[in-house]
Fold these 2 entries.
Entry 1:
Amino acid sequence: MLTRLKTQVPLFSMNSYTKLREKLKLSGLSFASTHSHVIRLGRHSRHNSKMAVCIAVIAKENYPLFIRSVPIQNELKFHYTVHTSLDVVEEKISAVGKAMADQRELYLGLLYPTEDYKVYGYVTNSKVKFVIVVDSSNTSLRDNEIRSMFRKLHNSFTDVMCNPFYNPGDTIQSKAFDSIVSAMMVQAS
Amino acid sequence: MSIPDYMQCAEDHQTVLVVVQPVGIVPEDEFFRIYKRITSVAQVSIRDSQRNLYIRYRHHYLPENNEWGDFQTHRKVVGLISVTTCRSAKEWPQTSDRFHCQKDVFGATLYDSRLLVFGLQGEIAEQQRTDVAFYPSYDVCPDVEKRVEDFVESIFIVLETKRLDRATDKSGDKIPLLCVPFEKKDFVGLDTDSRHYKKRCQGRMRKHVGDLCLQAGMLQDALVHYHMAVELLRSVNDFLWLGAALEGLCSASVIFHYPGGTAGKASGREPSLAHGQGQAADAGKRHRPGALTANGISADTSSEIGRAKNCLGPEDIIEKYKEAISYYGKYKNAGVIELEACVKAVRVLAIQKRAMEASEFLQNAVYINLGQLSEEEKIQRYSILSELYHLIGFHRKSAFFKRVAAMQCVAPTIPEPGWRACYKLLLETLSGYSLCLDPKDFSKGSHRGWAAVQVRLLHELVYASRRMGNPGLSVRHLSFLLQTMLDLLSDKVCQIRTTEGHVCLGALTLDQKKKEVTQSLENYTSKCPGGMEVLTLPDGLKLPPVPLSKLPIVRSVKLLDLPVSLRPHKQKGLLENNMSSKSPFIYSPIIMHTRGEERTKKIEFRWVQGDVCEVQLMVYNPMPFELRVEHMGLLTSGVEFEALPAALSLPAESGLYPVTLVGVPRTAGNINVNGYHTSVFGVTSDCLLDGLPSVRTSGCVVEVIPSLPRLQLSTSLPRSAHPLRPSKEELSSSVSVQLFNGETQQLIITLENIGSEDLETLEVTSKACNTKEKLFGEFLSWDLEEAVSQLPLKPGQSVTLTVNVKVRLDFSGGENLLQDLNDDGISVTGLPISSPLRQVLKPRAETKPLGSESSKTDYNHVKTLEAVMTFKYSGGAGKVEGYYRDLSLGVHVDVEPSVFFTKVSTLPATRTRQCHLLLDVFNSTEHELMVSANNNQDLVLHPSECQRMAIQVAKFDFHTLPQPDQEAVRYTNPKLLEEERLHTQASMISSTLGITWNIPSVRRQGEASVEGVLNQLVLEHLQLAPLQWDVVVNGKPCDCDIIADCKVGDAVPLEVKLTNRSMNAVGPFALTVVPFQDYQNGVQNYDLQDAVTFIGSNTFYIDMVKPTENSVCMGALLFLYTGDFYLNIKFQDDSAGQGKELPPSWFGLPSVHIKALEAPIEAGA
């Protein structure tokens, strides 16, 4: 396997490599930098040390089971953000072929960047969606960290589901789950 | 260039732009009629070539945009069609001038122009011009299309010339530098001879030629030119034009790959937002010969191959678009170009079904800053974004932007907010938020959707509809909000306030607390009461009514039976027809019916036309404040029903609360209670049970029968304080009275017809219930004749009925106590009553062993008698149908003991046909009591005193009692028969005795019956023997106390007559007459052979005597001395062979007392 990989590397044409690079450059250059017309003041001082600004759990039928955002923010705004992100989630799920659905990776990665936030998604095999919104200025957050946050969230959610007193489909009111979420939203040490 | 054309798509690059404009005064509708006809010529195939020319028409185009025509030739206005009205030749010069003025606006770029003149009367002196056409009116212009086609062809000729001109322009001539408006000043003083500059000029020109080729229908050439341009421009870093060349390449490739077009059939553009009408509609119809010819095969296969080589693949198209956009992005002034490129790319991606990438392009488009946009432009932009998101299947995102657009319509900066447009746009977002304004859909299953945003949207709808002056709509939306989102209007969501700083409704300060929602609802309804009608919006959307079935929440609906006294019953016999059951089994544990059936299940009971019927609802108020529900009534079908609405006030968050709704059915038939009607906060709602799955009901269909009269019952006795002991049937009323045993009380019952129908029939029955006591005589007796004679009873009239309540319980005192004493039978000589009984009687309550149940049957115990009188009545239409009503009156009598016969015995009287009945009478009352029998004197008894009473009675001949008829005998069991026989005997005895008691102190009196006291032995003693013996001495019938006189020496004839009254033949018997003398000192002298002699035999033989026959024996006696003689008639049964001994009491023969007197002298000699 290893040897094969090695032999394959040179097979990449120079052309496709540059294309790839351009692609990366493009998304960075064009989509985010040049046309930011809204001036944002004091954002960095406000919560660049936060890990997540909003965490949501969405049922299979696309209604929220749990949504929590940083209190200083306008909560409804996050409702809209998370709600619209479902479009992307659905698109991403449907993009994976039916046959591959079982082996699909649960983590969906960045759903979409907005002016202020980055929205990440995660879908369990039972089509329950987790969405984490982080401040786009928070560049220190790595993909791995987001993944581990989702894993933690998933584990805690599984615990909630295992509670015999929990009615599937109800909003989550578990304190344990709440504390896990809170931990993700507080300042990273 | 500041205003983007959001409708652009890639294939627009191959079109030529023609502006159609009115000149002078042209009615708008006429203009657009002509405009529509012109735009129908969107594609013209050119003669002598296989090429097609596509035309894009605009009725409005900014000259500013025209300046970008060199950059992308499809932006250049190459044709002008003017439409004008000219009534007379006089006006013509002026019109012509105007036309030329207009031509000058786009003059630099125009290839050709036309003027269409309408309404001209008469002739124009001027010579015929090719660019002007005259029509008498807007209606008569048959060849407009033809003229437009000609016009297009002429444009094509110019275009083709230009193309060839530029394409073959290889000379060393200086190539002019094409540039966009904002570049012009940059090139001032640039070295025009540098290689760099030349290359730039070449590249730009190449690109321009490519554009022309594309427009002229030469896709292949265009691709080649674009490729060359890309190479050239890339080398000189002319990014803007490189972008344009790349986009050109993309456009050409898109045209090749997607002949169907990318604009899609969607885009329901509004006239206010879209500048180019009809363009999109035509897009689909276009035929692209560049890709495939009409017959599907390209004429030139070689060009096909070449095309395929130069053409970009679907993946590459997107790559190149990205690249082009990134180049455009370098120039602030090219924002519109970039934005349009994004839109075009998104459309292509939508066709390719690559939503994710499309969303990236759109995301980018959102960020493109076009400087200060007017409000209308913002709305347009958001709308188009919404549309594009919709195109790629991002419905939520689409809804989001549509909502933003809606908010923009009423932004505070706009002087005249467009609430109508706002409302319209908001309605379009409903699907994106998976919201349907039909509460029926909503109630199906549990709520699914994003509640927070749905609530928000509904609030905005409410507010917008109010501001646009339609309170009816806002009431409807607010009702919907209350109905569907009630659970979600929790405190948590209440914290959510307005959204997105710049798009929030400035004035929208609706608080989302339940109270405030309801308050605003009340405010709105004060202007416009909410109803149940379907609201139809101008665009045809229907808003179904929203019944507020959760204010209050109804948990169960139960139809109530009429009160017992008003329940109708079906006459027996008729009833059985109805008793058809669905199942062959009498009982099955499996309940087969489903919920739905339950609803329609018919209920057992019936309602009556004209009578108030009740339905009980269990409701509760989920609101944290008091809820006032007005006009709550029933909704029914099947029968004309007059609902009597009720108003109720439910306390905050009340528990289940029973509410009874009433109504009067006005016709007969099957009534179906299918819902209820409420009015809450000014919103009237009709809540149908079908739509409320949470409501429990035990059936809603009930039969209404024709009207029946109604009776009200009142009595002379006080109403019963305590109801009768548990009994199956409920009673309409009951009376209670306290009586002494044996007492009789009159009960006067008044029946009043309070209904509206005549009372035609009345039947009265009574039934004793719940009594273990043995009752003698009739408890309740009445005479109905008089009451019935007054029928029919008109409404309002009344009738009275007198009922005798007679209590005659067992007067036997404590049989159990006397059991032992009675065991040996009742001795004829009687029983000393003194000591043992007294002992038992005295220690009443005190010494009784505790817990001994048997001691409860103390004779001082107050006994209870209960009976139910049933008045069955009917009349009116209900009677015809075979219905009647029952009115039942419970009669409760507490019977206090009066007297007891503690002991009964008989003593034979002196006469054989009589005997003495000895009764030990015990007074168990607390008063002094007098007892009297028929012909006896009164016996005074003090409280708890017992005395013996002797009554002489003639023996009874029970055979004279009526015999039960044979039929009855056959079918009843012998034991019962026997009991009945005993009972009749006893009652006969009792009535003969006529024992009464009287308590003077309380003025109460009554009878006492010995029925229960008599036992078999006593009865036998009281019974007249079936063999009746008559002894006649000297022609005189003799009995014990009668002394027959005779003379000594005379023969005394003796006659013994036997009458058989028994059922069987008796005999033969032998009778022996033995005379004796009683010395009254216990000595009886039988040795009288000397004193008495028989003439003939002293023994008689009686043969068999058949029933009812008699036999007479005659003999004679001769007394020899005077004296008192007795004759003892001895009796011998000779019928021993028959096996059956007759009881000795049958042979109760009188002893004969004969006094022999001195005979006269002459006889003695």
Entry 2:
Amino acid sequence: MSSGEGSSQSSSKKSRQPKYSRFTQQELPACKPILTPGLVVTTFILVGVIFIPIGLLSLSASERVVEIVDRYDEDCIPSDQEKTAFIQSDKTNKTCVRSLTVPKKMQHPVYIYYQLDNFYQNHRRYVKSRSDKQLRNPENEDLTSPCEPEARVDNKPIVPCGLVAWSLFNDTYGFSVGGMNLSVNKKDIAWDSDKNYKFGSKVYPKNFQQGSLIGGGKLDEKIPLSEQEDLLVWMRTAALPSFRKLYGRIEQDLEANEMITVVIQNNYNAYAFGGKKKLVLSTTTWIGGKNSFLGLGYITIGGLCLFIATTFIVMYLIKPRPYGDPSYLSWNRNPPGN
Amino acid sequence: MKRCVYINDDDLSHDIYCDNRISNRKYTVWNFLPKNLWEQFSRFMNQYFLLIACLQLWSLITPVNPASTWGPLILIFAVSATKEAWDDYNRYLSDKKANEKEVWAVRHGVKKHIQAQDIHVGNIVWLRENDEVPCDLVLIGTSDPQGLCYVETAALDGETDLKTRVIPSACMGIDFDLLHKVKGLIECPEPDKDIRRFDANLRLFPPFLDNDVCPITIKNTLLQSCYLRNTEWACGVAVYTGNETKLGMTRGVPEPKLTAVDAMIDKLTGAIFVFQLVVVMVLGVAGNIWKDTEARKLWYVEYPTKGPWYELLVIPLRFELLCSIMIPISIKVSLDLVKGLYAKFIDWDNKMVDQETSTPAHAANTAISEDLGQVEYILTDKTGTLTENQMIFKRCCISGTFYGNEIGDALKDEDLVNAVATRSPDVIHFLTVMAICNTVVPIQRQNGTILYKAQSQDEEALVHAAAGLHMVFVKKNGNVLDINFNASVIQYEVLDTLEFTSDRKRMSVVVKDCQSGKLFLLSKGADEAILPCASTGQQTRTFSEAVEQYSQLGLRTLCLAWRELEEDEYQEWSLMFKEANSALVDRDWRIAEVCQRLEHHLQILGVAAIEDRLQDGVPETIETLRKAGINFWMLTGDKQNTAIQIALSCNFVSPEPKGQLLLINGKTGDEVRQSLERVLLTMRITSSEPKDVAFVIDGWALEIALKHHHKAFMELALLSKTAICCRVTPSQKAQLVELLKSCEYRTLAIGDGGNDVRMIQQAHIGVGISGREGLQAARAADYSIGKFRFLKRLILVHGRYSYNRTAFLSQYSFYKSLLICFIQIFFSLISGVSGTSLFNSVSLMAYNVFYTSVPVLVNVLDKDLSERTVMQHPQILFYCQAGRLLNPSTFAGWFGRSLFHAIVVFVICIHSYAFEKSEMEELSMVVLSGCIWLQAFVVALETNSFTILQHLAIWGNLVAFYVINWIVSALPSSGMYTIMFRLCRQPSYWITMFLIVVAGMGPVLALKYFRYTYRPSKINILRQAERLGGPILSLGNIEPQSRAFEKEVSPLSISQPKSRSPVYEPLLSDSPNAIRRSFGPGAPFDFFQSQSRLSSSYARNCKDN
């Protein structure tokens, strides 16, 4: 007991003195790396050596992708007619037949994309014009306030509302090889999270495309939104003005030099704003679709690293500089006080 | 304006003056919210953020959820408001405690217990021993038959000794039972804050005394917050109450200090704001043009053909909101946090604990640590700051005989002891003056020893020394002093005390020998104040030589003198003195004049020399700090010779071949001008040489120089790195600080006493030494340290690290905000200049508040160089002083880096996530994670020393980013449901990240390495040298040792008093004595210093109170 008292007394006596700890004294053990030539050159060489193979790997993966891109918006329209009037009219025949040659063997699944250029799905007015709550739950069908100007028609809520849904892409493609129809699998083209959560299975389209202005595609009112996969894909807005969206999959291999006949229903109006429409058939690898950017980027950066490393080595050899030489301190060169 | 206080009158006074309710509160319950908000919004940053937050409420233009700005904003406001409220609540509580304290006061003729807040002006208040004085009182009675009482004034002026207070003569002898019936009138000035001055008159109404007007001074008062000690009871009349007391008037919140770094950050913020406006303008115009030309063609956007009137404003405002993150909202919070931690590090530092008194250093002002690293001028007090302020009587010269030498003190000198034993009359007189010419209060302790309570260390030293020579001051009984000399008791009655003032520089007492009835005038004071008063026949040469010798040893000297007075002469003088004492106008001046009439024809007894030792480590500290490029000015109230001597012994100026002292003096404007011009000329010539040139100026010449030759003096101040200003008053000290501040220098003032308070408050940084002169300076200061030598560590270690850390932190904060902002801008270029935000609200908020703030906060542990290296190479402080680490060009570097990184991240992301992958949410997360990865590496590259905490913060933060986003991605209701899982499964995501890191950091690393190796800064070289280990020999390093050694040898031996003079002789054309002589007895007193109420440093040592 008495010893305890004593210690408490002595501690209270010392209480004005700061407690010692390595943190409070700023004396935590620390490592202080400095940029020695060895460290820096090694780093650059290491990065270069790692990057170039990865770049080559990525590039080869990208090169293995077989891709057919066909721009059809120009050709699928009679040149003698006014484009916008043609595409907006109900009466014109918009069927268009294209034939594509398979350059190399395409292994299944072959992905079918449609590509839109110069289409600003990321425009502020466009991005905001949707009501996620309404898409999720049938009880929220009146929550259309963010959807202006496509919120209501005759004061009845539009489901799905908003510009994004309203401008749904509605070109269709039919494929055949040598007269044989190629079946296009349009199941599971949308994200699972969208199907299972974002779009409700009890939400059915209502009053869609009933207004005075007709935007894009129409929806079957008997199918719930969660199964309208084209809509789901479309409503995943793209961040860039040039984008591809999945249309479907061909679940069989396409041999080299095969001729594919595509029957396009050219409904979507990209002419009004000078957009381009392309049909893309592509296989994938581990890196995704055909995109040589990463591979080239890795090779370039890796090469640059090796170049920098070499330069530093050369500089070091030509003009070696002793480290931490106090004679470089100006106050040691000049007499103090100057 | 005068205040008339009717004593004990219950009706009249109530309406006129306030009651004794003390209120230190800033707010009331009702005005707290508006007033606090008003204060917070008077800052530009807060106004800006409020505007942004309000704009965000307009959903048409807001790119993100308004909560992302409102949340942090409200948090910041709530935190600072809570802090204010808490402080104010504590003030309220302490006020309440003081206000509700029970005191005895007279009400309607009866003594009653009332609450302190109910005291009114004119009430009679009774105090018991150890009571706190509730308001300013004029004493009318005490338990002491002589009418004395003792007070402790520590709370008022920080001095811990007891002071004597006495009742006015008119109240002398009033019976205890009648005291509460006293009626009368006190005429006193309007309340002011001068705690050393109170000039009033008292007239008691019949039946007490006739209409005689009785003067009242500060000695007749008890001021609020003092404590009554050693006195059974005392009673007084309340004259000032509540917030109008002397203490209440002195109170007041000093102006908040702004550091140079803060000013620079504000400037940069302003620049960024302008940049932001430009960006907004350009993008706004571009957006409107694009809208009108392109967007109208986009049928899917359905732009209405005719918009509302504000349509043109919508896009610019959207961009304003989008770019608002350019100015990081987190910077203020982060800076406050780290600054608090810097201050804590100072408080915690074990190496700055004064082991003798176990006083740790303390940072009272937590906001200005960076300024410590940017100090350019240090203005230091001498006594108590450079020296110990522990006075020891060392030597004396009595009628031409020198006592004491290098071997021992005068006390141990056989000759002196013998002289005392043989009762040599001169020596006895000398000892008598030492023992009783003072204001010391002896207190008998239980064990029989005597404790001397003295205000001045000098007096205490003298009384102790006298006691050592068997002249023991035993008891003070009212005016009667008991002296015990060789077992026989001698009694003296003190008739008058001619007080010390800093202008008179001497004090005297008139005493009556109770045995013989003879009257004596005993005087002591500075040589130039005493020697001219010597009787005509006496040779004063030996004494002035003694003074010269002693002051060259760095000793403080006091001349002691006496004179026997004729009864008639005294009576005549006494009347004049009384009259002067009751003067309401110019009392000081008149008293001084009257005193002078008595202080003449003195017989000089001798010179006492008192040593004030230098504190440990002072020369080394000054040496180091001077090498760090800090200029020192010494401002002291002491004499020129003593000041120069101390300056030499503590490395202030180098000895002769390298150093040169230039003297500026003169009595008239012309003399000062000539002297100033001559010195200036020499300065200009020598400024190119590597020579230590310092100028010496005294208070008088300084006054003239500052008033009439301000420009020339300014130039001198700019040229001279060192200055010694002696005999300066507190207000002159403050003026000098002001002068240096006006030259855009960062100043640090360090001092220990009440006379340094003004300079401490005036300077950018005030450092107080919690020394023997009380805590007054330490309380007023921003930092308080126990010893002068800790200043080195405070500046070189704490100041430097704080500056470096803040420089990095602030620029990094801008960097990361700019980075994300540039990306938003780039994205808007590919989204139809419509102001779409790439990032969602949650990510944006978390980016600013969390992801990028945590790693950089740990930067407070970063040390670029070890403390040892910095101490060895103090020159490195130049980088902080010159602001090399935070200025527009370094900021431009960070700006460029953020632009470069934004381009890298953006270009890589939009190319690798093109076509089928260009989904908005995905791309946003890829870009965000790219930024976070770069952040981690930027912080890692800029960190100089990695402790475990830094690793945890940097890499842990990166991990935390993924964990948090996985959690958010797992919530179905969040917008980015499953996004992060999808991304992390893609090899291309990781490949993209590594590409961003290498492409972003590679050039930065290469550039840094190149600069580090081929264009190294001094910091880099020292880092490299430190890494190589071993002793880092700096040529400059060898020197201090040798000089320190020289110092040990060189204290001028008394045998060759002139050997040291060459140091300053070459330019000392006028002997300092010449100036001193002119203080002749007939010379009129020049009261140019009289504005300064606080006495100078010498004053402290002799002041009478």
